[in-house]
Amino acid sequence: MKISGEYVLNAPVERVWSTLLDPAVLVRALPGCEQLTTTGENRYDMTVTMGVAAIRGTYAGTCELSDLDEPNALVMNVQGAGAPGTIGAKVDVRFADQGDGTTKVGYDADAVVGGMVGGVGQRMLTSVSKRMAG
Question: Alpha carbon 41 to chain centroid distance?
């Protein structure tokens, strides 16, 4: 499943970059993330609760930030598993200085969903995922 989007944040690119790399902020930025524990440089164990339609569950997984090109881009790799199924995602994130003190953050995600959640249907998953990314 491919998902993409972009948002403009009211902060300079350097501040957006450093804020997003702060684990205390990252835990709030990841949809449904309840816990994020640092396990290494830019590597985390995480607990996420989310659902699609009537299927809800808690996932245990990992999040790794790689290919850091400060303050322009990074790659976020997320893997998780729980009773409702599995999820894996690679998210390419771009940061662009808009020249007026704002930053455009764009993302392109490629996710693989398995188990009961994967059976919900591509259109519903895409719709829910875009809403959560916002």
Answer: 18
